[in-house]
Amino acid sequence: WSWAGCEGKKTKVTVYSDGETAELIVNGHSYGRKKTKEYKAVFKRVVYEPGTITAISYDGEGKEQSRTSMKTAAGATELRVVADRSTLQAKTQDLAYISIDLTGADGTTKSSEDTAVTVEVDGAGKLLALGSARPNMGENFFSDTHTTYYGKALAVVRGGDVPGKVTVTVKAKGLRAKTLELEVI
Q1: Distance separating alpha carbons of residues 89 and 134, to the nearest angstrom
Q2: Domain co-membership, 34 together with 124
Q3: 24 and 86 both lie in a single domain
Q4: Please, are residues 158 and 125 in contact by the beta-carbon 8 Å criterion?
Q5: Residues 6 or more apart from 8 whose CB is under 8 A from it?
């Protein structure tokens, strides 16, 4: 729920829910309950404002089933780099998927920001691919530089044939680089 420059503009919000109805709340203001159809409740003409958006799912008796919230990213933009594993098996096709996010200081993804990120892999592994879901981007997945999409990108690293450390460094212009280590065993 981070759309810098869209403040005060109306948008459509779709809530995905298996409940009978869903309610949408933005900064304490309810946009009411809508009946779900094919697991979706569509709220038209929602005014975007920074803060918190909450979706609540209700069963057929009006009892709350679940709720989820998203908040606007706060603070200066920084890189968050997280690997799905810390070790890789040597001499295999074992892969580590490394999530790259542009976040606010609070850790919330800044979905309205995109920038080119460069991934450097040193040691006992190699970068296999780097990309995002950006359609028609004209960038090569085998390059070490790629533009994020809605503040996100994904790098794929494979361990080599020899055990050792793998150092992965992610850089973006104007942001502090982030480094993480993997181990090939």
Answers
A1: 31
A2: no
A3: no
A4: yes
A5: 47, 48, 49
| Residue 41 bridge partners (DSSP) | 15
Task: Answer for the pair 98, 156: CB distance below 8 angstroms, yes or no.
Answer: yes
Q: Are residues 152 and 172 in the same domain?
A: yes
In a domain, residue 4? The reply is no
**What is residue 4's predicted lDDT score, i.e. its pLDDT?**
80
Q: At which of 71, 98, 114 does a domain end?
A: 71
| Amino acid symbol at 52 | T
Give 3-49 pLDDT, tens digit per residue.
888 899 999 999 999 999 999 999 999 999 999 999 999 999 999 99
Q: pLDDT tens, 136-154?
A: 778 888 999 999 999 999 9
Please list the residues that pair with 109 across neighbouring strands: 103
φ, ψ of residue 179 to 5 degrees: the values are -130, 140
Tokens in use for 34? 């809508």
**Where would I find the beta strands (DSSP E) of 27-76?**
29-35, 40-47, 52-58, 64-71
Measuring CA to CA, which residue among 124, 162, 129 is closest to residue 145? 129
The model's pTM is: 0.79
